[in-house]
Amino acid sequence: MNKAEREMGVVKAGGTSLRAAPGGIGVATLDAGKLLPERIYEQLLEQIATGRFARGDRLPSEHTLAHSFGVSRPTVRHALARLQADGILRSRKGSGNYVAETPSTALLNLKPGTGNISEMLLGVEFRIAIEGEAAALAALRRTDVELAVLKEILNRQELLSDAPLAEVHDADIEFHTLISDAARNRLFSEAIRQLYGSVMNSWLLWHRSASDEYGKIWRSVLTEHRAVYEAIRVADPDAARTAMRQHLTNGRRRMLKTSDTR
Fold first, then answer.
1. DSSP code for 97
2. pLDDT classification of 204: cutoffs 50, 70, 90
3. Nearest-5° angle of CA 113, CA 119, CA 124?
4. pLDDT (tens digit, 9 = 90+) per residue, 22-43?
5. Any residues with CB less than 8 A from the CB of 100 and at least 6 apart, and which?
6. 134 Cβ partners below 8 Å, 6+ apart?
7. Could you give the CA distance from residue 40 to residue 232 in angstroms, rounded to a whole number?
8. Which of 15, 45, 56, 218 is the most buried (most CB within 10 A)?
9. Closest CA to 7 of 49, 58, 46, 41
10. What confidence tens digit (pLDDT) does each residue in 139-165 have?
11. Signed CA dihedral, 46, 51, 53, 57: sign only
12. What is the pLDDT of residue 82?
């Protein structure tokens, strides 16, 4: 079996690693049973979603991408063709592949785990139930050190209105996972981290598609985060539960409102 044939086939049980060459595009671990073209597609999609490749940016050539990911050009070509079909890339003859200037509505209709709006809403529904209780417990069980770190995260978030989307998301995840850890129940922490891992591409893609409104959205998020923090600070579990549930419910409403206008 030659290199291209191996890459187009299914990875054997136990998985393998796909590593970029020095100075390359990225590093990823392939899941057992996952096709390499699909994995390349997901890696490029994530980098577009997080803004590493912004609207209108030209992607590296097929040759450069193949070298960076350590795969063959047909594998890269397969992934690029799928991104074009999804309306995420535009191909210009003789020039290369460019991130679409206007995000396609296909960004909200990709397979579950990347950009499917229904999958995202399921995740938010789960978060409302789980994170509300985690916040209530955190109000009772948090340490002074955790409270100080939570405040520091909140202060940092105040400065992120114009920051890259990936940085905003990192700070948001940090805020929510610290609260789940402060609940002193590992099942909360494990559930929330697993959820973030499974649907983060969805949230990144949605926020990218809503980027024209994101400054306003982020200001609302900050106000809601402050309410959650204050309830935890004064050790009021009912207020913490209510503030967190309201924050996530508002997020769900914003998501629906934005998707309805596209």
1. E
2. low
3. 115
4. 344 544 444 434 578 888 887 8
5. 55, 87, 88, 89, 90
6. 179, 180, 183, 185, 188, 192, 244
7. 42
8. 45
9. 41
10. 999 999 999 999 999 999 998 877 776
11. positive
12. 84
What whole-number distance in Å separates Cα of residue 117 and Cα of residue 210?
13
In whole angstroms, what is the distance from residue 29 CA to residue 43 CA? 10
Are residues 111 and 154 in contact, defined by beta-carbon separation less than 8 angstroms?
no
The domain 3-102 is placed in CATH, from the list 3.30.420.40, 1.10.10.10, 3.30.420.10, 1.20.120.450, at 1.10.10.10
Q: How many residues does the chain have?
A: 262
Q: Which fold has domain 108-260?
A: Four Helix Bundle (Hemerythrin (Met), subunit A) (1.20.120)
Closest CA to 209 of 25, 98, 51, 44: 51
Q: 36 with 25: CB under 8 angstroms?
A: no
- What residue ranges do the domains of the chain occupy? 3-102, 108-260
Count of C-beta atoms within a 10 Å radius of residue 152: 11
**Do 3-102 and 108-260 fold alike per CATH?**
no
Q: Which of 149, 137, 158 is nearest to 231 (CA)?
A: 137
Whole-structure pTM over 0.70, yes or no?
no
Per-residue model confidence as pLDDT tens digits over 112-148: 344 456 667 778 888 999 999 999 999 999 999 999 9
> What radius of gyration do the chain's Cα atoms show?
20
pLDDT on residue 17: 39
How is residue 59 written in tokens?
């992607």
